[in-house]
Design a protein that fits this description.
Blueprint lengths: L7 E3 L8 E3 L6 E5 L2 E6 L5 E3 L13 E9 L3 E3 L5 E9 L7 E7 L2 E6 L4 E9 L2 E10 L8 E6 L2 E6 L7 E9 L7 E4 L6 E8 L3
Antiparallel strand pairs: 1-2, 2-3, 3-4, 4-5, 6-17, 7-16, 8-15, 9-14, 9-17, 10-13, 10-16, 11-12, 11-15
């Protein structure tokens, strides 16, 4: 069996500053322009000098994540949509990218009496509604009284904005009848509500 033992392997032309560095036991270093580009250690861990280009990542890969956390209580007593305070911008790296919008809002309904009503939530991209949900809220109690009813504030939507410009997503809320002393509350008692945006490599 024959072996070639060298400390480095370089190109035969040019300034010989690119190639393999084998001078350290159980370690392989790839250099370009006399700069370490990639290192493989004895445990087969690979270290890159810089991030992989997003164009090299496969379809469905997560390219970036941004999030807003809202901990300030907001009360909504309106039959028209108004902002909940959840709003976040993201700048896609490609027009083919998808944006996965995840809303986890701490909602409850403060209601007077036993009238059956509903609350609504929407996700907007800019001025365009891209998703909406309705939650029925009914105290089911006779007589006059005030009731706090927990409400599901979760929404997930995969959007295709088709842009590389900064794009803002906003969560808005409303109630079906503002005259019935019905209030939608978000982040009551400083509980956290979140809006998470994930850029997904498109297909």
């Amino acid at each position: 069996m024959s072996e070639i033992k060298v400390n480095s392997v370089v190109n035969s032309t040019g300034d010989n500053d690119s190639g393999l560095d084998l001078s350290t036991n159980d370690q392989v270093i790839i250099k370009t322009a006399n700069t370490t580009a990639l290192t493989v250690d004895s445990s087969q861990n690979v270290t890159l000098a810089s991030k992989l280009a997003t164009t090299n990542l496969g379809t469905g890969a997560v390219l970036q994540v941004v999030q807003q956390v809202l901990s300030t209580e907001k009360q909504i007593n309106s039959a028209s949509y108004i902002t909940t305070g959840l709003s976040k911008a993201i700048t896609p790296t490609s027009t083919s990218s998808k944006i996965l919008v995840i809303v986890n809002a701490s909602f409850d309904v403060f209601q007077n009496g036993d009238a059956g009503r509903a609350i609504f939530a929407e996700i907007k991209r800019g001025s365009t509604q891209i998703a909406e949900k309705t939650v029925e809220a009914y105290a089911d109690q006779t007589g006059i009284g005030y009731y706090s009813i927990p409400a599901d504030g979760s929404m997930i939507f995969l959007d295709s904005p088709s842009t590389t410009s900064a794009t803002t997503y906003t969560v808005n809320g409303k109630v079906s009848d503002a005259s019935n002393e019905m209030t939608l509350r978000i982040s009551k008692s400083s509980s956290d509500s979140t809006l998470t945006l994930m850029e997904i490599a498109g297909w």
